[in-house]
From TrEMBL:
Any single GO CC term annotated in Swiss-Prot or TrEMBL for this entry: plasma membrane
Entry membrane topology: Multi-pass membrane protein
UniProt xrefs under InterPro entries: DUF202, IM_YidH-like
Organism: Candidatus Nitrososphaera evergladensis SR1
Keywords: Cell membrane, Membrane, Transmembrane, Transmembrane helix
Pfam families assigned to the protein according to its UniProt record, in alphabetical order: DUF202
Membrane-spanning ranges: 27-48, 79-99, 119-140
Protein name as catalogued: Putative membrane protein
Record domain DUF202: where: 16-103
Length: 146
């Protein structure tokens, strides 16, 4: 049966390589989703700023005052913009990590010694939970202000 064993070995390695590739692609999908969500969160801050500007302009027009001073009082960077940029940065960092993990995984499969990396899963989950919690707090704060 040595011939039968030799036939299975390349297929087993191929399956491991393909599983490593699927894992890489799932990390890329997660990164793209995180970047997209970060963009939406950052643009939400811009929407709130513009909405605030429209409301203030109407108040100023009602008082027959100049709106230039009011525009200068608006904050330039809102919390959602900062949070969105941080989420985008996390997505980009995750792309680089996933590429490194993919390459390391291929080397480990070739050498016959593969050790799963659990720390990134825990770190990613904790960071996403923190960003999600911060977004919830921000949205609650904004809704209470309006």
């Amino acid at each position: 049966m040595p011939d039968d064993e030799n036939r299975r070995r390349p297929i087993d390695l191929a399956q491991q390589y393909l599983a490593n590739e699927r894992t890489f692609l799932s990390w890329l999908r997660t990164s793209i989703a995180l970047i997209g969500l970060g963009f939406v969160v950052a643009r939400f801050g811009l929407f709130l700023r513009e909405f605030q500007l429209v409301v203030i302009q109407r108040e100023v027009e009602a008082a027959a005052s100049s709106s230039n001073n009011v525009i200068q009082q608006l904050p330039e960077h809102s919390f959602s913009s900062i949070l969105g940029v941080l989420m985008i940065a996390l997505g980009v960092a995750l792309i680089f990590y996933s590429l490194k993990s993919y390459r390391d995984g291929n080397k480990e499969i070739e050498s016959g010694v593969y050790v799963p990396k659990k720390s990134v899963v825990y770190t990613g989950a904790i960071l996403l939970a923190i960003f999600g919690g911060a977004t919830i707090l921000y949205l609650l704060t904004v809704s209470l202000m309006m």
